Amino acid sequence: MGMLEGKVALVTGAGGGIGREIALAMALAGAQVVVNDVGASLSGLGETSATPGEQTRAIIEQRGGRAVVSTDSVADWEAARRMVATALDAFGRLDVVVNNAGILRDQIFHKMTPEEWLSVINVHLNGSFFVSRAAADVFRRQSAGAYVHMTSTSGLIGNLGQANYSAAKLGIAALSKSIALDMGRFGVRSNCIAPFAWSRMTSSIPAETDAHKARVAKLQAMGPEKNAPLAVFLASDAAAHVTGQIFAARHNEVFVFNHPRPVRGVHRSEGWTPETLAEHGMPALSGHFAPLDRSPDVFSWDPV
C-alpha cells in the first residue's frame, strides 16, 4: 500500500518538470491523478497544447496508475472549478491539491510592464487561490484535504529582476498560512515547498560569465524529481500534524523556513518624533536590519 492509496490528487502544471515528477510520484504512491497543464510556453505566450499533460498521463498509465488530463487555466475561476469537477467526475473524490503551475516574465523592476506584472500574478497567486478555493468546498464536506503550494526563495529571500514572480511567491506563502488557519477546523492542511531544481522555470537563468556557468551546472544536477518525495509526504496522512509550514527541497537537503517575527523593539515613553527616530530609534534597531540578500547569497554552498 502506497502512502496515497485511495486518494485523488490534482496537480497543476503537471505536463513537465517539477509538476510532472510530483504527479508521477503521487501515482506511484497510489493516488489517482488529475494532470492539469495548459501546454503553454514558459512565458505563457503563444499556442497551448494538450500534449504535455497527455504525456504525463501516458507515463502514469504505463506504470499501472490512473490519470485524466485537464487543460484548463489556473488563472480563470470557472476553469479552476472545472478542474475540481474533473476530479469528481473521473474518480468521485478529491483529497490533494498541488498548486504548481507557473510562468516567468523576468524583467528589471523599472522596465517591467503592467502586462508582465499581471500575467505572472494571475497564474501564480490568483491561480493558487482559484484552485484552492474551488477545492475548499469539497474538502470541507469530507472534513479532510491537503494543499501543497509551490513558493520560491525568490519571494522568501529575494532575487534580481523578478518583482512579479517574487511578489506572487511570497503571497502564496501567506495564502497557505491563511488556509491553514481558516480550514484547520475542517481537518484541512496547507503547506508550501520552495523547490530547487533544473526545469523550464530555471532554464532561463543567464549563464554568461564563468561563475554563472558554474552555478547553472550545479543547478542542472538537481533534478525536478528531488521535490516529489516531500510533496507526497505532505499530501499523505503521515503529515496529519504538519500544516502552515514552508519547506525547501534542495537535492538531498530538506529545510523548514521561519516566518517573519519581530527581532528587536525600542520604546520611548513620550512617543517618537522623526528627529528622535533618526537620533535614537533607528540606531538602536539598525543592528538587526535584514540585509539585501538574494537567494544565492543565502544558499551559497554546493548541494551534495
TrEMBL record:
Every Ketoreductase domain range: 7-204
Xref: SUPFAM superfamilies: NAD(P)-binding Rossmann-fold domains (SSF51735)
Signal peptide coordinates: none
InterPro entries documented for this protein: KR_dom (IPR057326), NAD(P)-bd_dom_sf (IPR036291), Peroxisomal_Beta-Oxidation (IPR051687), Sc_DH/Rdtase_CS (IPR020904), SDR_fam (IPR002347)
Cited PANTHER family: BLL2957 PROTEIN, DEHYDROGENASES, SHORT CHAIN
Family to which the UniProt record says this protein belongs: Belongs to the short-chain dehydrogenases/reductases (SDR) family.
Protein name: SDR family oxidoreductase
Organism: Methylobacterium ajmalii
Phylogenetic placement of the source organism: Bacteria, Pseudomonadati, Pseudomonadota, Alphaproteobacteria, Hyphomicrobiales
